[in-house]
Amino acid sequence: MKRTITVLILLVSLSGFAQRGGKMMHERIKSQKIAFITERLNLTSEEAEKFWPIYNEIEEKKHELREKSSLKKIGKRPADMTEAEADILLQEMLKMKDERHALDKELISKLSDVISSKKIIALMRAEREFDKKLIERLKQRREKRKGKK
Hints:
Layout lengths: L1 H40 L3 H29 L9 H29 L5 H32 L1
Helix pairs in contact: 1-4, 2-3
């Protein structure tokens, strides 16, 4: 649950950055993530050649899922929603979790033919570490901006 809240905060923060920095910010984060994962997994050139197309395909699907759902969530605080609106949102959130889980399973299934199970676990850890570092950087930027005002 804590990770879900953290990811939601990250998505909202990223959507704010995306509106300001547009595609450039998204591309910069994406290239930093690629470098981070490459370093952590220590892929051979043969593994990398097969790994990145699979990984990028699933990441694009996850990005589309986030874009589709985040637009629906932003706008009202839970206190401002009717119970019916909250029920609908809750169902959409559960559906999104199911879809994300299905994408994670698809990624693991496809990657298991390309890299070892140990490297798949290392990938999952690297993704969590990257998200954590990204959140920290966003917090630092926010604090810097508050300090300048």
